[in-house]
Amino acid sequence: MRKSKFALAMILAALPTITLAQKPSAYPAKNQSAEQQSTDDTQCLAWAKQSTGIDPATFAAPPPPTGPQGERLRGAARGAAGGAVIGELVDGDSSKGAGVGAAAGVLAGGVRARHNRAAQAQSAQASQQQQAGTYYHAYGACMQGRGYTTG
């Protein structure tokens, strides 16, 4: 169950966000010409950008990488500490146990790092989706104000 949620999060993070929020269609309800519709479209897109402060060109930009967060290093340290204690108790050799524990901790830290990156990507995608909705809502309001039916 946990693996399938992680896989779904990774797939969603890989999808371009621009496909999730789309510009609404505008039908010329007052017999506006194609030229007038093009002009109104351009002006409403600019107005939506200005009034919301949202630039639709940023929708497709991937979130900036955050860099390593130290999950592997922390995992290695925790694993080494736990392994040392277990190694000392089992066979009196804490160094062997520390090495095994550190290796296991690095692996656990890697899993934690992947999970954190997937959660970050999902959060960024949700934020972009919300911004796109706000932007296109403003665009639709502008087009309706100019006599178009949007949907």
The number of helical runs is 4
Gyration radius, in Å: 26 Å
Helix content: 55-70%
Task: Indicate the overall shape.
Answer: rod-shaped
Low-confidence stretches: 15-19
Query: How many structural domains does the protein architecture include?
Result: 1
Biggest sheet, spatial arrangement of strands: 1-2
Count of beta strands: 2
Proportion of residues in extended strands: under 5%
Can you describe what's shown?
The protein has 151 residues and is mainly alpha-helical. It has one domain. The chain contains 4 helices and 2 strands; from the N terminus they run αβαααβ. The chain has helices spanning 2-14, 34-52, 71-91, 94-145; strands at 26-28, 148-150. It has a two-stranded antiparallel sheet with strand order 1-2. Helix 1 (2-14) packs across helix 4 (94-145), helix 2 (34-52) packs across helix 4 and helix 3 (71-91) packs antiparallel against helix 4. The two termini are 38 Å apart.
